[in-house]
Amino acid sequence: MTASPAGPEWAAAMRALAAQCGRAPSAHNTQPWQLRYEDSGVGVYWDPMRALPVSDPTGRDLFLGLGAYLETCLVVAAGAGLGADVVVDVDRAARRVAWLVPAAEPYATRFTANDVASRRSARGPYAAGPLPDDVLDEAAALVEDAGGIRHLPARALAPLLARADRWMFAAPEVTAELREWLRLRPSHPRYAQDGLTDRALGLSRAEAAGLEMMLRPRVYGTFRRAGLPAALAASSRGLLRGEGTALVLVGPAAAGPAELVALGRALMRSWLALAVRGLATHPLSQILDCPATAAELAAMLDLAAHERAVAVFRTGRPLIEPPRSARRGG
Ligand SMILES: Cc1cc2nc3c(=O)[nH]c(=O)nc-3n(C[C@H](O)[C@H](O)[C@H](O)COP(=O)(O)O)c2cc1C
């Protein structure tokens, strides 16, 4: 395939790549992007039913995910020899984030469609040991046009994660929204389409059945004040033991949608660089969602008033091969 300057062939060529582009990551695997193919370009919009208004009221993860999606599209198009560029054009009323437009040259990237396909979130145990300095330097270099990367021992986040998980499971609306996106048994009608499956979460059949039961509105409603949030939070207790590394993407404190899109593109580049080395990522966004733990993290990292952590994730070599996550359209 060759780069065509514009017009219907370019849009058709982009359409043919949609499934590969759709391997981009998104919070709760909602895949919020919606595409409108026009001769002048592809409008990238978001579906309000796939935003997370309760757990992501500011749209932080929405715009990071859309940024990751746009970066993924450029990498996939480049792999097909197709020139493409991103023009960010946020219109909240129209729910548009950007245009993908034809470009004379394919996007300059060292990542491939294969890297996109092999990247994984992994929520199970990771091999012990910190990330080597050259990997940290590489991740930092890949985000520097949008923000910075800080690192800390994953272990240091353990108390924050426990507190953030308890906060999350104590909030009925947040838990209800999470429940909407959980697919805890293979018979769920959207199991292969979107959301978080039992397999993606690394749960055994018994654990998945237990979680499903505890999150049932009547059970949750009855036991919410009787220790259920702490019991639910306990499942992630062991994750941050050991000597692993957590990375934090830091951007401007006042980052609006356009800056978050740039940060999402940067995040995707760093995740691809880690994937190339066989490393997976496990975002722990609840630490940023919970105001108390977000403030604690900012203090731990000594962030300046003009800085804000926008993504936090542990990373490492997964000891259990993570499953391929579900996608709409297969
Ligand atoms: C902005 C953003 C925030 C995310 N936050 C979390 C999180 O807090 N916890 C988690 O387990 N996964 C989180 N994820 C990972 C997604 O759930 C994951 O990308 C999605 O389920 C698809 O799986 P994959 O990354 O293996 O393709 C996040 C992803 C993005 C892009």
From TrEMBL:
InterPro entries with a match to the protein in the record: Nitroreductase-like
Gene3D superfamilies: NADH Oxidase (3.40.109.10)
Superkingdom as given in the UniProt entry: Bacteria
Entries under SUPFAM superfamilies matching the protein: FMN-dependent nitroreductase-like
Protein name, entry field: Nitroreductase family protein
Organism in which the protein naturally occurs: Streptodolium elevatio
Highest classification ranks of the organism: Bacteria, Bacillati, Actinomycetota, Actinomycetes, Kitasatosporales
